[in-house]
Protein 1
Amino acid sequence: MNFLIGFRNFLLRVLYRVTRPLIFLMEPESAHYSLKRIGVFLGSNPLTKGLTSLLFDYGNKCLSIEVDGIKYRNPIGLSAGFDKDGELTSIYPSLGFGLAELGSFTGEVCPGNPGKRLFRMVKSRSIVVWYGLNNFGAEKISKRLTNVDFGRLRIGINAAKSNVTPEFELQESIRDYLKTMTLFKDIGDYYTINISCPNTQDGEPFVDPDNLDALLIAVNEKIRPISDKPIYLKLAADMSLAEIDTIIDGVLKHKLEGVVLTNLAKPEGNNEHIAAEYPTNLGQLPKGKGAMSGLPLQRISTNVIRHVYRKTSGKITIIGVGGIFTAKDAYEKITSGASLLHMITTMIFDGPQNISEINRGLVKLLKEDGFISIEQAVGSRNPLPIIAQQDNVQAGKDDKAA
Ligand SMILES: Cc1cc2nc3c(=O)[nH]c(=O)nc-3n(C[C@H](O)[C@H](O)[C@H](O)COP(=O)(O)O)c2cc1C
């Protein structure tokens, strides 16, 4: 059976390689909307869903994992930004995803930035994104998703602040996050608070520790009493270790369950990738704007995961994201400390069959290391300092005693 699935995935990969040049003839945003329409159709009835499962799905018991009380059938998730209006949830399980993070959703309707907003960087296996949080707004989307049964798919609700004005106003911005989180209180399985969109008019004001403090106090006061969903914070890719540490201190102080590491990489510091594609692929990108997914982000995000896992002694949940194209990439993030993973760019460059191929590869890698579950692999190649290990042993004893 495993051999047949491998052969099936190989054929689909070849097929995607043949069709990809045609898809890449389209403007990236148009290609995205066309493929989205196909996804909506495939998810619209049991027959097309069943056929899609036959072609793309893969399951294995050792991939299932429980994180913060939520059971996932596998750790592979769709990252925020692909399904900004939450329209494709009925097809993701058939594609093999264990989870999908929807959004980012904002309190107000957001048109996003004007002009061309997506750019393929083929040599760098990356997408430059200049979207600016376009979505239909939390009210309309939450209404549509209320009472939807997501079945075996676990859902993350990614909340960001409306990108509608260049002025930052703290209380107004906090209200915006709270509005989205309140409207989605009964929808999905966890929240992600996105403070790291690189394409907004007023920058990333919640990287400032005082602003973050005020936001997390308000979230704990207003959201915890109405929803028991775990809450994660999504961090930017381009921060110094000191900046990361300050934010992680805030996460620990306000007892969030974890972090999503990381959002897109800004062009500064990655100029060689931009230069390699300029002007052929990036001619219309406003100067200095946009941020990169995919390969340029891979090492950056893994390093942040390694750092945060060690700093927190593995005590908070890490969702790893950035440049995952193969099972080895996925396993590297898991063994660095991530319990769950998100991805987008591999779907664009390698095709949707890669989701089950990554899941299948993970099973093999777990076996090679003698693990019987993802849990056992989390952080296994990122040993904690001795003191932290002793703390963990003590915490385990305390748990048992309790
Ligand atoms: C087209 C596109 C749109 C995105 N929009 C969002 C977004 O709205 N909110 C968010 O938190 N991240 C957004 N991201 C970032 C992704 O969630 C993810 O962090 C990043 O793409 C790295 O993963 P990848 O290398 O697998 O694509 C977007 C990424 C892409 C490619």
Note: The chain is about 45% helix and 15% strand.
Protein 2
Amino acid sequence: MEAQPHATAPADSPALGSLAVQPLLTAEFDADPGAVYRRLRATYGPVAPVGLMGVPVWLVLDYREVLEVLKNESQWRRDVRYWRARAQGELPYDWPLLAGYEVRQMMFMDDEEHRAARRTHHAALRPFQDAKSPVGWELRQAVARYADELVALLAAESGRTGHCDLGAQYTRPLLLMVTTKLFGCPVDLGDELVMDLWRMLDGGPDAGPATGRALAAFTRLAAHRRARPGDDLTSYLMLADPDLDDEQLGRELFMNAVYLNDITGNMVLNTLLEVLRGNATVRRSLSAGQLGETVNRAALANPPVANMCFRFAARDVRLGGFWIRAGDIVSPSAAAAHQDLLAIGSSTMVGSTVSTRAHLGWGAGPHQCPSAARELGALIVSTAVGRVFDHFAQAELTLPPDQLPWRSGPVVRGLKVLPVRYALSPDAPVLHRPDPGLLPAVPHQESQARGLLAALRRLMPGGRKES
Ligand code: HEM
């Protein structure tokens, strides 16, 4: 398939706005997105027009076409200013997905501006990804320690056998603790931040205010760290690019927080689910001690970034069965492309423990997950998943897999809860409760507001301190 940069769409080819489109985000999509992708492919071929909250979008379904969109940056632009419907004022004024796209940060830049921002990120992230650097070593220790603390807290609160939600009681707090540490936040980040990121990503009714709240929090953090630099990502971003002001730095942190909390968290849950539901190849790779391969297989089965961020056509181009006009919006779907990939290569790719790195879980092309971020993400996922299997003698789903509730947004597909019946192994970590008389007093209201993390801080000897 060749992009035809100088071609012009024939006048009689259907324009996106003239096509009758079905809404993508339906109850069926929530329950079984694969069935929706199959039907769209059968009706339209590799590219299908769909409605996203009332706005028509080209959804790219087939692996080859998705790769073309991700890799060919001169044709497929990230800057939202290329979007014709936006430039011409044709979008509903309160279209909820726009809030996130209006936040100008690295993801929505092109060409040299984008490459410079990536260099900054790489320089700032690399020390944390490098196990030999002091901060990299410390972060690795911290992730494992937080996971152990959460298992110990679970044992203290719910017993060594019982029921728990591995989302709310393990994965979400773990990623918040990691973000607090990595970003150098002076206070523990709370679950309300994750909810605001969800509202923005999923285009909830209050996506605009939620985006504003999260941005304000990260701008404050940038200002705080500028006054008191430390060994954290915020300070290292500032060092790598001294021209970043607090607002720009806040925007970059905001975007990293999405990947770190929501996307990495979903990758943890999706991997746990694939193992718990008995995906034979995933289990086989886990028992062969190939945790990295387990994560690859889970990403192939269920990529957390199900549909990548929008791209905008720089020029008229034919893609799949349609002419895409300059300024049209496209959404490349990793989840649909994986379905296509599995259909193409099922016998050799999935039936064995051969590597499945062809997955698009990390994206592809110039905007793919930066290598340092990817290694950090993989480290967090494998530690989080590995710790569960180290400490749980038994864990089984309490709902049939097809009844688990999912968040199926325009971008992300992630589990809302992962309920399991569990038994901890005899050597699972325990909380050493200090003498209550020695604990610092925590006002009741604060403990209510902070929930699990506040409980942790109360129970841990010494707690975690401000810096
Ligand atoms: C398992 C966890 C992760 C997964 C599955 C993941 C996946 C992705 C994907 C699919 C993209 C490309 C999106 C697109 O092209 O539309 C991306 C980009 C990005 N990711 Fe990750 N990511 C993960 C972890 C992380 C972590 C931990 C960080 C930072 C701490 C991070 C930072 C970024 C950044 C900054 C970009 C934007 C790159 C650009 O636009 O040039 N990611 N990630």
Note: Residues 1-95+309-359 form a domain with the Uridine Diphospho-n-acetylenolpyruvylglucosamine Reductase; domain 2 fold (CATH 3.30.43.20).
